[in-house]
């Protein structure tokens, strides 16, 4: 691998959120184990490789202002763009519960949007603190 390729790969990896970085690592381990299982085992067993911390910089949320009289579905879209770094699958249950409360049970959209905002903010704070799991 050339130094330019290493630099490019490192920049790509540093830009990934923690969950995606974990997926890339597991995929690389899988590819290497298919090609050379013994080498993969030696690399994974090496204490230096296993103990290296992976620095993850969590980007700040996008500044997308909340419009007046925002609809619930529009709020989910806005918050998903605002907090692009969050794993939406982890939030799906809580988000869909709030949307359901609005659509099926008639809960006021302003209340639901407020709660959605709080939910996304809370998950972002947890991610910043390293407690996202």
Descriptive notes:
The chain has 133 residues and is mostly helical. It folds into two domains: 3-51, no CATH class; 72-129, no CATH class. The protein is built from seven helices and no strands. The chain has helices spanning 3-15, 18-35, 37-45, 47-51, 72-82, 88-103, 109-129. The protein is elongated, with a radius of gyration of 20 Å. The two termini are 34 Å apart. The mean pLDDT is 84.
Strand and helix layout:
Blueprint: H1 3-15, H2 18-35, H3 37-45, H4 47-51, H5 72-82, H6 88-103, H7 109-129
What is the number of E strands?
Answer: 0
Biggest sheet architecture: none
The SSE order reads HHHHHHH
Q: What Rg is obtained from the alpha carbons, in whole angstroms?
A: 20 Å
- Tell me the count of domains: 2
Distinct helical segment count: 7
Which whole number gives the mean pLDDT?
A: 84
**Which consecutive residue ranges, at least 5 long each, have pLDDT under 50?**
none
Please tell me what the overall shape is.
elongated
Query: In angstroms, what separates the terminal alpha carbons?
Result: 34 Å
Q: Helix- and strand-based class?
A: mainly alpha
Helix content: 55-70%
Beta-strand percent range: under 5%
Outline of the structure:
The chain has 133 residues and is mostly helical. Helix content is 70%, strand content 0%. The protein has helices at 3-15, 18-35, 37-45, 47-51, 72-82, 88-103, 109-129.
């Amino acid at each position: 691998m050339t130094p330019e390729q290493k630099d490019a790969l490192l920049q790509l990896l540093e830009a990934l959120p923690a969950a995606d970085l974990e997926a890339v690592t597991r995929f690389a381990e899988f590819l290497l184990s298919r090609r050379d299982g013994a080498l993969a085992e030696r690399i994974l067993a090496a204490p230096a490789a296993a103990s290296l911390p992976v620095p993850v910089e969590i980007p700040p949320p996008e500044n997308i202002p909340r419009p007046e009289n925002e609809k619930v579905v529009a709020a989910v879209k806005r918050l998903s763009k605002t907090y692009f770094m969050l794993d939406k699958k982890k939030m799906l249950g809580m988000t869909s519960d709030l949307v359901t409360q609005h659509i099926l049970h008639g809960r006021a959209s302003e209340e639901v949007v407020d709660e959605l905002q709080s939910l996304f903010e809370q998950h972002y704070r947890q991610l910043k603190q390293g407690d996202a799991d």
